[in-house]
Amino acid sequence: MTSFSITIDGRAIAARPGQSLLAAATAAGLDLPHLCATPREGFAPIGSCRTCLVEVEGEADLVPACRHAATTGLVARTDTPRATRVRRLATELLAADMSAEAAARHPASPFRDLVTRTGADPDRFGHRAGGHPADASHPAIALDPDACIRCGKCRAGCRDVQVNGVIALAGRGEGLHVAFDDGSPMGTSHCASCGECAQLCPTGALAPKALQAAGGPASVTASGETVCPFCSVGCRVTLHLAGDQVVVWAEGADGPANHGRLCVKGRFGFPYLRHPDRLTTPLVRRADAPKDAGLSLRGADVLALFRPAGWDEALDMAARGFARARQAHGPQALAVLGSAKGSNEDAYLLQRLAREGFSTPHVDHCTRLCASVPPLAEATGFSAVTAPIEEIAAADVVLMVGSNPDSNHPVAASFMKNAFRRGVKLILVDPGMQALSRFATHHLRTAPGTDVALLSAMTRLVIAEGRHDQAFVADRLEGFEALKARVAPYTLDVAERLTGVPAAEIAAAARLFAGAGAAMTFWGMGASQHAFGADNIRAVIALALACGQVGRPGAGLHPLRGQNNVQGSCDAGLLPAYLPGYRPLAAPGHTVVEMFDAARMGEVRALYVVGGNPAMANPDLAATRAGLARLEHLVVQDIFPTETAAFADVILPAAALAERAGTVTNTDRLVQRIAPAVPPPGEARADWRIIRDLGVRLGLPWAELTVERLFDEMAREVPALAGFDWPLMERAGHARYPLRPAPEGDSLFADGFARGPRAAVVPLDATGADEAPDPAFPFILMTGRLREHWHTGSMTRRSPVLEALSPEPRAHMHPDDMARLGIAARGTVEVRTRRGTVRLAAWPDAALRPGVVWMAMSFFEAAANELTVNRLDPTTRVPEFKCCAAAVSLA
Ligand code: SF4
Ligand code: SF4
Ligand code: FES
Question: Are 592 and 611 found together in one domain?
Answer without folding.
Answer: yes
